[in-house]
Amino acid sequence: DAGVIQSPRHEVTEMGQEVTLRCKPISGHDYLFWYRQTMMRGLELLIYFNNNVPIDDSGMPEDRFSAKMPNASFSTLKIQPSEPRDSAVYFCASSWSGEPDTQYFGPGTRLTVL
Amino acid sequence: SQKIEQNSEALNIQEGKTATLTCNYTNYSPAYLQWYRQDPGRGPVFLLLIRENEKEKRKERLKVTFDTTLKQSLFHITASQPADSATYLCALLMDSSYKLIFGSGTRLLVRP
Fold first, then answer.
1. What's CA B74's distance to the chain center, in Å?
2. What is the rounded distance in angstroms from the CA atom of residue B17 to the CA atom of residue B30?
3. How far is B34 from chain A (nearest CA, A)?
4. Is residue B66 within 8 Å of residue B50, measured between CB atoms?
5. Do A109 and A93 form a contact (C-beta atoms < 8 A)?
6. How many cross-chain Cβ pairs, A to B, lie less than 8 Å apart?
7. Which long-range contacts (CB under 8 A, 24 or more apart) does B6-12 make?
8. Phi and psi dihedrals of A85, rounded to 5?
9. Which of A42, A100, A107 sits opposite B43 (nearest CB)?
């Protein structure tokens, strides 16, 4: 199994630009989570999906952030417009309803907004 | 809101000794508590889960305890090795949702 795949691994952009982060969950997993990790705030849940439907987006910081899951094998997290304070490592994780307690994390995308 | 506290100072121990990391939480008890390992530049990796009605859980050299009275979990690594050096995160699940709340992590350094 390839595990959770995220792209790009690194993204450097300028303030005001649109950023799209991508995630491919583990095949067969029906839960997908987006997290953000910073030194100041640690690892925070932004949003999670079950069977491609957003269940809880209370962690999404503001309207500049949006997430979609058009199918079971792909999700995106979009920031528009990006700001320097969005700089962080963004992780995607997935889990399976038969073993919901265990989340499998991707390698993360390190985002730097200049 | 729920708060989780992990020792922000790094734990530095000698190889072969037992490492003990602490996770304290406030407010109401979680449904369960998890421990993850995170290496630099990588995502967290699940290690162990302990439920509110369990006192202790073991997996190879790892042991987790859960004291709902003290609102505390202890994570032990026995016979520690330099390869155990990493940051260890605790995470709480508060209810029937799958929403995990993570602590800030404790960095462990095992000296050869």
1. 7
2. 30
3. 9
4. yes
5. no
6. 47
7. B6/B88, B6/B89, B6/B90, B6/B103, B6/B104, B6/B105, B6/B106, B7/B106, B8/B104, B8/B106, B9/B106, B10/B106, B10/B107, B10/B108, B10/B109, B11/B106, B11/B107, B11/B108, B11/B109, B12/B109, B12/B111
8. -70, -5
9. A107
Tokens of B110: 């095992």
Assess B98–A contact: CB distance below 8 Å, yes or no: yes
CB contact under 8 A, A56 and B99: yes
What whole-number distance in Å separates Cα of residue B33 and Cα of residue B51? 6
Rounded to whole angstroms, the Cα distance separating A72 from A49 reads: 10
Query: What is the Cα–Cα distance from B25 to B70, expressed in whole angstroms?
Result: 9
Which pLDDT tens digit goes with each residue over B76-102? Answer: 999 999 999 999 999 988 766 778 889
Instruction: Look up tokens 């889960």; give the residue.
Output: B49
**8 Å CB contact between A80 and A64:** yes
**Degrees (nearest 5) of the Cα angle A31, A99, B87?**
80
Chain B residue with CA closest to A5: the answer is B43
Bond into A81 cis (ω within 30)? yes
Residue A54, both tokens: 């957003």
Question: Is B40 in CB contact (< 8 Å) with chain A?
Answer: no
Task: Kindly report, residue by residue over B15-72, the tens digit of the pLDDT.
Answer: 999 999 999 998 777 778 999 999 999 999 999 999 888 989 999 999 999 988 898 9
